[in-house]
Amino acid sequence: MATHQPDPVLHPEVQQASFTGYTVGFVLSLALLMAALLITEQHALPPLKLLGAISALAMVALFAQCFLFFGLNIALHNIWKSVSLVLTVPLFILTIGLTVWMFHELDSLTMLPGASVMPGMNMQPTLLQ
């Protein structure tokens, strides 16, 4: 069992942190975010390929943050970090999936469909027509 460390600077996780790792991780994540924004804004890819490209950039950013920010590696003494990440990822995916599903259902239940969908409704002329 690990002993309590009263001085936070002497904690092993703080000792393994490095300014270089944090800086490189931040710059890499920022560059990947800018790349995702650029390909989204330029409409350079069809929707399915755009989703794949953004997902790939997100995975690269996730791996970079895991290695550079959290110090994950395959060493036996860091196994609890890897296990906690593996057990957290499904919860993260489930949370995002349920949120998307909830808003999709909310949209279909609360937003009025177009006039062509509802039989018997006449389209009212607008000021722009």
Helix percent reads 55-70%
Oligomer: single chain
Instruction: Encode the helix/strand succession as letters.
Output: HHHH
Radius of gyration using CA atoms only = 23 Å
Query: Pairing-aware structural class of the strands and helices?
Result: mainly alpha
C-alpha geometry: extended
- End-to-end separation in angstroms reads 75 Å
The largest sheet, given as strand count, sense and whether it forms a barrel, is: none
Averaging pLDDT over every residue, what do you get?
A: 79
List how many beta strands DSSP finds.
0
Strand content is under 5%
The number of helical segments is 4
Low-confidence stretches: none
Q: Your description of this structure?
A:
The chain is mainly α. Among the domains are: 16-71; 75-108. It is built from four helices and no strands. It has helices at residues 12-16, 19-41, 47-68, 79-110. The longest helix has 32 residues, at 79-110.
List keywords for this structure.
129 residues, mainly alpha, extended
Report a brief summary of the structure.
64% of the residues lie in helices and 0% in strands.
